[in-house]
Amino acid sequence: MPDWTYQTVFRPILKQLPFPMAQVMAFGTMGHLGRSVVGRAVIRFTGHANPPKAAVVIRGDLRFSSPCGLGCGVDLGAHAVSALSLFGFGLIEVGPIDVGGAGKSERKTTEWRGTGVAIPPSAQVEFERIFHNLDRNRFRNGTTVVARLNVNDDADAGTFIDVVNRLENLVDGVCIMMPLSNDGRPDAELLNHRLTTISGAGLQTFVRVGERTAMEHAAAVSEIIDVQAVSGLIIEGGTHPDGHRGMTGSVTVQRTAAAVREIRQSAPAVFLIANGGVVEPADGLQLLNAGADMILLDSGFADAGPGLPKRINASVAVSRNEQTVSTDEITAAEIPAVQRSWFWSFLLGLSLLGGGLMALALGWTRVLLPYDEEFLGMLRDEICSINPQLLPFMSHDRVTLAGTMLALGPLYLALAWFGDRQGMHWARVAVLASSFTGFLSFFLFLGFGYFDPFHAFISAILFQFITLCLRSSQPLQVPQEFDLHNSVSWKKAMWGQLMMVIHGVAILTAGIVISSFGVTTVFVHDDLEFMQTTRAALVQANSRLVPLVAHDRASFGGMLMSTGVTVLLASLWGWQRGRRWLWCALAGSGTVAYVTTISIHWSVGYTSLLHLLPPYGGLFFLWLAMLLAREWMFEDATIRSEDVA
Question: Are 310 and 356 found together in one domain?
């Protein structure tokens, strides 16, 4: 679920539900998606959250696709492990699983719904339910899954061994809390006994330690970790003297960062994971810069939304200033422009822009081309004599089509130059998906019966650009934009993104509807009322009139579908802080299309309010979305040292 949907629709609802109902509902629904091929395809399509290569974490034998992990207690019962593996996590911690009956109803359950509140490690989850859900969520997308065990001091050794053995084929590792002696120091002997059991099952072993313990006994903790066969150490922030986890946030991030620095100095080689109050990317970068190899999210994931790991991964990639996802491993300097996909996308945009200008000039003046007259077997004056409103009606269709082309052309130009040329894979996919949609719409002529030779010629040329774009390479992407804070401008931009996604779906739907009219009834009631005629009268006057109008209708519908796909995908995948070029492209192209459409309607006198309501509403919707997003998308995208210190 993208941030724009979560922040504007689901979060306000979930915040009103009691713990743990909100978690069970949200992750239960997500789990159903993650366990099906179609559901995972939907998550991939909307999220586009694969971690960039620059975010990969490697230390020793450990390798994670992302420095961002999900802490236990978030997905109660491990309902949605398969779905969550597609959100950009390198590690998912499930549980906690109590071993030996540690703390049941007497365990304190803290409020978790506020910003920066630690989600409590609840003991209310049934063991069998966790095992059952882990077995159902076998798809992991390469993400490491670790089970957290809460082991009571007097837990029966046989019970502990049984739990570990049952987890052997369900998870990649196990995490246990560092046992403490009566004086509060780490108990190396008891820890060694438990780790021996875990390593015997062939699982990775992670040890948790509170940030207070890490600060007060850093040397002892480091010594034990160096001696024991431990895969990694998790420093847990927000631990209070009474043993309960409390509020997290900036204070906890700072305390956890201090503990990370202490341990890193004592044990430079240990794989260090920090779990302490991360609610925005800046918090994650602060912990990573302090020396952590990975961070875990808890309540920040519930508050900021499911896009938080993607934002953290992008920020890490930018801060490392390395190259990331690409379609090949060839540098831009070695490949000429004509062998790059952006070059052909750019030509495609120029062609649409030029074609739109010609169509606009034709629609405002002569309206009909010579081969249109040849197809009808009538001259322009004879066509006018059939119905004086016929040519104005056709003019309104063709100018509206031209306006859509004048919107789509600049969108392609922007996506090619600022997106594809910079290695943004989503921009290339958006252009290809949109252009293929437009090309396939040409074959609607099979439904309306008018083969336009010029339209076929242009489509054939544009199809060559599409195929050349498809087979050409894309340069490596050097990540530039970042998004560190859950600011007010970011939250407003999420509303703007939601509106633009709805806008793109609406345009796509309108294109489908208009295309269907083009191959069926052709006219709507308002059309016939404007011309003061009937379909039968037009057919009687010339049997080829309706197929000619249907051609214009279907072509316009196909162009609308292409535009809808472009707007939808650009809004889904490209909506990012600092991308003013995308803001200008969407706002400018949309305004041109709507103003052109509205102008030609008023020019020919086709002013039915019901007919013009879609362009009126679309223009208002577009600019409301753009105003909401303007501040965020025009912000500077340069990471400052004070942002991540």
Answer: no
